[in-house]
Design brief:
Strand content: 15-25%
Number of domains: 2
CATH superfamily of the largest domain: Enolase-like C-terminal domain
Number of helices: 14
Order of helices and strands: EEEHHHHHEEHEHEHEHEHEHEHEHEEEH
Number of strands: 15
Helix content: 25-40%
CATH topology of the largest domain: TIM Barrel
CATH architecture of the largest domain: Alpha-Beta Barrel
Bound molecules: magnesium ion
Radius of gyration: 20 Å
Length: about 400
């Protein structure tokens, strides 16, 4: 089984993992009707026996993720992740991942345990980077790029069509003013995850896309995310054929994620690239998406797919198939930084999803962690700080910890 471990020249610090702490965070103003997973987080802190701490998080229900890491093991195929970690050499990330994957296989292999392992694995990269004084991208191998291009992910509020459209246009213009050269517009006014109980006809989705394109002008790269709106390729095509004139870079998750045959039909016929992958766990689910779904853009989420190393394996699979990578990330600065470090050593990563704190409505995104990444002329220059380069505000962590 291929795994990914830090590449470090010279002798490694002789440390062992002493402890792992899992905190469930929840924004006190969270709205269960809001389609945004950035209202909660599981923050994992892994402490080495020299006192160095690495931080990670995953994008999945934080109570369940915490249980996935801390629940006692009862047999060899259902072990406790925390027990696997304690006493291990943190630089053996690939070997630790293999032991977690095999040791939890009866309960895991996919889904929640893999998402929880993502937080653990991310924290190990942060820890190793801090232990050797190097940024994570420098431990991943390959020459990093000088910069990566972020896109602003825009998710408006609003409970009516006009409110929604106007909020989206306003945030698109804000993103443009901040210097972004690419944006992704959520257009989710119907389907299983429609905002605020909206149920708008498809023509109005076209109206919103048209309004955003008109507002930002022809130079802006525009992506659209409809969050599993349609059930089949034919219905989707009957609407998005008209979107060719809006020059959409990709259409994200237009159909149900498991409906790979329909996804393949759509990817063949749509007038834009088709992007999927935000929910997937492990290389195995991506192999299916790529080889049956034939999407043009794969979107691994480092906090769900199994961590930075598993995301790197997915990136390599995309390169073999001439597919683009545009990672998914809708979380705090911890995951955004992890995504960025991976993107710096992934030449076929076209953009990263980047929600600037100033545009975020979610308070965890705004308050929890300050990433080193900064936007300069629409680009993010190469980070230099050790590890993920994230400063976590521990007062904020304590304030929002609920378990
Ligand atoms: Mg999405």
């Amino acid at each position: 089984m291929r795994t990914v471990s830090p590449i470090v020249d010279g002798p490694l610090p002789r440390v062992r993992i002493a402890d792992i702490e899992c905190r469930v965070l929840l924004a006190p103003d969270y709205d269960p009707q809001f389609t945004s997973s950035a209202q909660d987080s599981l923050v994992v802190a892994i402490r080495a026996d020299d006192g160095t701490v690495g931080i990670g998080e995953c994008d999945a229900n934080p109570w369940i993720a915490k249980a996935c890491i801390e629940s006692p093991g009862t047999h060899t195929m259902g072990q406790c992740i925390k027990d696997i970690l304690i006493g291990s050499n943190p630089f053996e990330i690939g070997e630790i991942w293999r032991r977690m994957y095999l040791g939890t296989a009866m309960n895991g292999r996919r889904g929640m345990i893999i998402h929880a392992m993502s937080a653990v694995e991310m924290a190990l990269w942060d820890l190793c980077g801090k232990l050797v004084g190097k940024p994570v991208h420098a431990l991943l191998g390959g020459k990093p790029r000088d910069f990566i291009v972020p896109y602003a992910s825009l998710q408006p509020g609003g409970h009516s069509f006009a409110e929604y459209r106007d909020a989206l246009v306003a945030s698109a213009l804000n993103a443009k003013a901040l210097g972004f050269t690419a944006i992704k517009s959520e257009v989710t006014m119907n389907g299983p995850y429609a905002h605020g109980g909206m149920n708008e006809p498809y023509e109005r989705h076209t109206e919103v896309v048209a309004a955003v394109r008109k507002a930002v002008g022809p130079e802006m790269t525009l992506m659209v995310d409809v969050q599993y709106l349609w059930e089949d390729a034919a219905t989707c095509l009957s609407v998005v054929r008209d979107w060719a004139e809006f020059d959409i870079f990709f259409l994200e998750t237009p159909l149900w994620s498991d409906n790979l045959e329909e996804i393949a039909k759509l990817a063949e016929r749509a007038p834009m690239k088709i992007a999927f992958g935000e929910w997937l766990a492990t290389r195995h689910e991506f192999k299916e998406l790529m080889d049956v779904g034939h999407v043009q853009v794969a979107q691994p989420d480092v906090g769900r797919v199994g961590g930075i190393g598993e995301a790197k394996i997915v990136c390599d699979m995309a390169a073999e198939r001439d597919m683009l990578i545009v990672p998914h990330c809708w979380k705090t600065g911890i995951s955004i930084s992890a995504t960025a470090h991976l993107a710096f050593v992934t030449p076929h990563c076209a953009f990263i999803e980047y929600l600037p704190p100033t545009l975020a409505v979610e308070r965890l995104r705004r308050e929890l962690a300050q990433e080193e990444l900064r936007l300069e002329n629409g680009r993010i220059p190469l980070p230099q700080k050790p590890g993920l380069g994230v400063e976590v505000d521990w007062d904020v962590v304590r304030k929002y910890t609920v378990a």
